[in-house]
Amino acid sequence: MSERSKVSVFLSSPTDVQSEREAAERVVSRLGGVYAAHVELTLERWERRFYEASKGFQEAIAAMETFHLIVGVLWKRIGSELPPQTFRRPDGTPFESGTVYEIETALAASQRSGRPAVYIFRKTSPVTYEAERVDEQRAQKEALDGWWARTFRDEAGHYIAATNSFNTTEDFEAKFENCLADWLRNKGYVPSGPVWGVATQGSPYPGLIAYERDRSLVFFGRQLAIEQARDELLAAVARETGLPALFVIGASGSGKSSLVRAGLVPQLTRPGAVPEVDLWCTAVTAPTADSLASLAAHLYASDSLPELAASAQPEPERWARMVARSPEAAADSVAWALDHAAEAEARRTGAGRKLQASLLLVLDQLESLFRTLPPDHDQVTFTRVLRALVAGGRVWLLTTLRSDHYAAFQRDPDLLALKRAGATYDLPPPGPAEIADIVKGPARAAGLTFDECDGKSLARVLVEAAPNADALPLLQMTLAQLFERREGAKLSFASYEAVGEVEGAIAAHANAVFDQVSPAAQRELGPLVEQLVRDVARRSDRQIRFTAQVADRKAFETSAPRRELVEVLVNRRLLVSDDGNLRVAHEALLRRWDRARDSLERLADAELRKARLQRALAIVAAVVFFGVAGIAFWQWSEAQREARAARAALSGQTATHSQLSLQDFPQRSLLLAVEALNITAEQHEPPVGAAEKALRQALAHAGGVVLGRHEKPISAVNLSPDGRWLVTVAEAENGARLWDLATASGATNPIELQGGGGHIAISPNSQWLVTVSSQGQPTRLWDLAAQSPGTSSRILSAAKEPVVFSRDNRWLVTGGDY
Hints:
It contains 28 helices and 29 strands. By secondary structure, it is of the alpha/beta class.
C-alpha cells in the first residue's frame, strides 16, 4: 500500500455552534473512514498553542499555511476577545475576536500562497437571546454582522467572497460533508468515484451477517471502539507477563463479530501497526461440533498458513490428533510454519534481513464452545491447545463472547488464564452519532444517496427508527433490503414504505426464522410472549396495548422446545439475551409480527374475561353486602356522631390546658394548642374555636406572627432563601398566597397569586417564583423583585411539575408532555 496523504482541517467557531462542531467531527471521521486507504484526515479546533506561537500577523499567516483546509462556522456570536496589544491587523486595528483572527489570517494565507482553502458557513435559523444576557448577546450579534459585512460584501452589498448558509445542524452536516468530499476529489487526494463498487462488490450493507475483512471500507460507526480494543490488546502485549489475547465481550447483536473481523483485523495487520511483526498470517474460525478439527482445517487453508502442509503432519487431521495429545506441540509446529512463511516473503520482496511472522487467530462466537456442564473432553482439549498456541508468543488471539455466556466461560481454567494474561474489551452500545455513521457511511463509500421528503432525510428516519443498539441488526436488515430496491443510486422513501419500514421488515424476517424451529418449539411462542410483556389490554378501538419487559431466561427455559425457541430467536437477532434476561430487540416484533400479535390478542382476551368475572363477583358481593348494610349504617352513623363529639370535647379540654400553661410554660402551651387543633384536623373536621384561640395566644406570647388562614387545609409552603417571602398553597384552591415577612402588613395582608397553587418553587436568588396549578390553570413565572409581584407574571406554556432552578439562577427546568 502506498503511503497515505495527510490532510489537516482547522475548525474555527464560537461557542454558540457547539452542535455544528460535533457534526464537523463526525463528518471528518466518516470521510476519514471512507477514504482510509488514500488519506489520513485530522480535525483541529481552536488551541491556545496557536496563539502563543503567533507573535504577529505574518507569523499567524505562516501558521495557518500549515493546514490544508480552514472551516469557519458562525451564527450569532463573533467570539471571545483577544488581548488588543498583542493581536492587531497590519493597519493597527485590533481583531474583534479569536474567531475573526483565525478566519482573517486564513484568508490572508490563502491569498498569499493558495493554502489553506477557506470555507465559511453562516447559520440562518432565527436568533434568540437569553433574558438575563440580552444586551451582551445582542452586542455580539451586531459586532458579527458588522464584521461580516466588511469582510464578505462590498459597498453595494454584493458578496465579494464565497460563503455557505445553512439552517439546521443536519443541514450543515450534509453540506460540509459534500464540500469536504468535493475538495478532496478536486485536489486528487481521493478517487473521483465511489470507493466501494456496487457493480463488483455488491451491497455495502451485509444485512444480518457480520461485516468481514473485505468489507472494512464500508464498516462505520465503531472507530472509537476499534481503537480502544486495539490499545487494550497492545497494552497487554507490552506487560512483562502479558499475552497477545483479546476477549471482546458484549450483548447479542451488539456487533462483536463485525468489530473484530472488519475493524480489528485490518487495523492490526496494516503494515507498521505492530512494529515487531513484518508479516501477518490470519485464520478465522468458530467453535463447531469438532472445534479442533475445524481449527486445523482453517490453519491449513491456502489463505492462512499453508506452510503447515510441508511439516511432519501434511494433513490437518494428523495435526489435530498430534496437538490433542500434546498441546505444546501446536505452538512449535505453527512457529515452524511461520518461519518458513517469513523466509518466503523475504525472498519475494528482496528484504535484506530476517522477517518476523505472526499468526492472527480469530475465534468468533466463543459461546458456541460451551455445550455441556461441566466442560466435556473436546472443550478441555481445545482450550488447552488455544492456551499453548498463545503462550508460544507467535499467535495473537482475538475472540468474541456473548455476555450472557460469561458464567460458562469462567468455568474454563485455560480461558481464564488467557484472559488474566491478555486483555478484555467490553463492547459498549453505539450512541446516536455512531448509529448515524452506521447508516450514512456505507452509502457515502458506495456513492449512494438518501431520499428526502418534506425537508427530512431518509437517513434520519432510519436512525430514529433504531432508538437503541438492540435494534441494530434489524436496521441493518432494512438497509440491505433498501439497497436491493434502490432507484439508481438513491435509497428511496417509496422502497422504505414498500418493505413496511423497519417494523415490516422485522415481521417478514421473524416469519422466516420461525419456520426454521420445530413444531414443539413453535407452540412455546405464546408462553414466551406472555413473559416478555405486561399490562396487556384492549383499547376502545380494539387495538392491543402492552408494555414490553425483560424476562428471566433461566425461569422460562424449562424444556428442550423452549430452549430451542429462545436460542434461535437470540441467534437470529430477534431477541436479546443479557445478564440472564431476555428482551425483544425491537417492540415492532410484538406489534407487527402476526404470530406474536395473535399471542397478545389471546392474552388481552384472557385479561378481559378475567376482568368481567371479577366484576360479576363484585356485583354478587355488593348485593349481599347492601342487604345487611342498612342496619350497620345507622349503627355506624351514631358511632361517628359520638366520636366527633368526643373529639371536639377533647380538643376543647386540651386548649384549656394550653391556656393554663401559657404564663409559666409557654413552649408546653404552644405544643398543647397545636395538639388541640390536630385532634380534629386529622379527621378533616372543622377546628374547635377554643383551640384556635389557644394557638393564637401561644404564638403571640412566643413572639410569633399569626398569618391569615386559608379556607382549605394548607398543602404546600415555601420560604425564599433570603427569608423575605413565604408562599402558601391550600388544597383545591385556584391560587397561592404570597406573604411579605419584611413588612408588618405583609404578614397579615397576603398578596393573592391568581391561577397559582399546586406546586411552587423559588429561585436561589429569591427573585423568581414558579407556581404550577393543580386546577388546570397554566404554569406562571412571578417576578418577586417587581413593584407589584402579584401582577407581574408570565405564562410558561406546556410546563408542568417538577420545577427546578439551576444554582446560578440562569436555567429553569420543568416537566411537560413532550
